[in-house]
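Bench log. Compound arrived from synthesis this morning; before running ITC I wanted a structural hypothesis for how alpha-D-glucopyranose sits in the protein. Inputs:
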Amino acid sequence: MKQYIIYLLTLTLIFQLSCAKKMGETSAKVKKDPFIEDLLKKMTLDEKLGQMSLFTTDWESTGPTIRAGYQNDIRSGRCGALFNSHTVDFTTKLQKIAVEESRLKIPLLFGYDVIHGYKTMFPIPLGEAASWDLFAIENSAYIMSKEGAAAGLHWTFAPMVDISRDPRWGRVLEGSGEDPFLGSRIAEARVRGIQGKQTGQTDRLLACVKHFAAYGAPNAGRDYNPAEISERVFREVYLPTYASAVKAGAKTVMTSFNDYDGVPASGNKYLLTDILRKELGFDGFVVTDYTSINEMVKHGVVKDETDAGILAIQAGVDMDMQGGVFQEKIKDGINDGRIKEEQINQSVRTILKIKKDLGLFEDPFKYSSKERESNTILSKAHLEASHDMAKRSIVLLKNDNTLPLKDKTIKILVTGPLADDKNNLIGAWSASGEGRHCVSMYEGLRAHENSKRCTFEYIKGCNVDDKDKSQFEIVLEAAKKADVIILAIGENKDMSGEATSRTMIRIPGVQEELLLALKAIGKPIITVVMNGRPLVLDKVHDHSNAVLETWWLGTQAGHAIAEVIYGVYNPSGKLPMTFPRNEGQIPIFYNEKNTGRPFNPNDKYSSKYIDIPNTPLYPFGYGLSYTSFTFGPPLSNKKLYSLKENVVVTVEIQNTGNYPGEEVVQLYIRDLVSSVTRPVKELKGFQKVFLKKGEKKTLSFTLTPNDLSFYNQNMEWVIEPGDFEIFIGGDSDTQNKVKITIL
Ligand code: GLC
């Protein structure tokens, strides 16, 4: 064991030295490339500012403005990158303009929001996060990038790594939930999957970590609102995922719309230079989000767009998305010295270097293969991967043994507005995905071989979001004749995503009324929820026999849901975000502080609500299985540790139920006494393990001193002596713990 710890410490030392070297390189000038220096010398100021200008095409709009004339911008060398332009044909057409008609023939960079699939759609990222399966998530990111690259793209605006504790904010669907540790491991996996090991492979894309920073912490859960959080909370909760994605090698970072500590991210030098480049050693380029430079005028921190552009350059922005400010408005700032031309040269150098690393100067049409496009997109292997990811993303929230419908000869009523729906399965940010390629839940149920024993009746029952109850009567009549009811309800895909904050996060329309009416019929109800965010599911919980959280599962959704319902796949998902009892609890999250008056049912003067419990409906890390898992006590290798020692904790887990299955074994710590208040739990490790019926396994976790560290009152990252509790279990409510002491 001693050798093992020495080995680990050596590894840690090497890693730290390599980071220090990288940071040293970054703070000094990145070494100059003769080809790029030669090109830079030939460029006019307009051409340099053109490389720093990204515009959307008119194929689709993902923001408040659309811009004509981008083809002339390309010809004049005043646009170096485009987004919302894909397919080999379209990108080839635009690239030809750049490399045949512009003066310096600098190839274009093509970006697009390939967030959870290009054409083969995977579950929304929040759904993938529920799998806690880093290998599957990395593979999903790889396949979406492979398809995007086959469609002529070089760059995706992913991964979105914004932590959020607020399900009123519609963009939680794009991230990995509320926890910095889980979110960081997923961010790393997505960067690896998107970029691969080396830039320039024709089955990978450039990653773009977004939205830097703390975009997921808007006041009142309302999109674009300020993130008004302490530096401590920022660094401990929101910053880690960006840091992990940068350390995983992401080549680009996108700024967020919000202001952080009073300064909009696109003009925030503390964020973009002090933290991103100096602390984290980021050496790629920073692109703003859609017109967010221009929007600094509305934020009220500058008087006009020229000052906004100057502020953005001074903060560390390299590329202006859609604003046209770098292209048209900042030359005054250069002429009067507020911006040094060397700053412009540095940004252009970085952008050109990445284009060169992609191989675009050698072959601007390297990613433009019609053959690869037709052989890659929607391939059988990709559909299988989407199916696998989808089933791993499903979370079983309740089950009174109504599920699985294994080997049963039964009459099934399939109902609900999302039961045979395809279009919503691709979710928000669905790139080039098409609902028509999706397998609906009803199609999946009937396509599975298990359906041979079943007879089905399908009635839609109602719509997602209106008051029409005209089908209720026929649904209830059908329910009387059925043995079991499968009800698919939830949100439309445009009810989550950008600019979709909701104050009431229940299931909309008359869907809950349909559930209650069905409940009165007295047959078992399996409720399948399809949604982009945690919803208030109290009525669904109380009136269903079984509840499946299925998010929006993508192209193969129906097959995945069918395999879980028939028991062919034992659900293994765990919630990456807390589900509240109602909106009044928000923000609600597992890693809360204890307060000086923690809830005590026997003490009026304790922290509580007088109308509902403090606890959520479903906690972070929660998810059931068709089998059961039993944990032994966590065992530490010692009781007393020095400040520099690793803590090794083992636990035995046994499958004590009737099905083989996977369990996500989660390790949390609690620092019992420290110089600043610490959360009652912090996730610091997890392992997803498969166990046959009756099988036992012993798992080992290693906690380094860094895992037990935090920011003290001086904002120094320290580990302090004292007692810690180490919890290991199947969700964040676990009380299975061992105490250790750091001397
Ligand atoms: C949008 C989104 C961002 C996206 C960008 C380009 O406003 O905030 O996530 O990547 O514009 O579509």
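What the model suggests: Residues 1-8, 12-28 have pLDDT under 50 and may be disordered. The two ends are 20 Å apart (CA to CA).
ITC booked for Thursday regardless.
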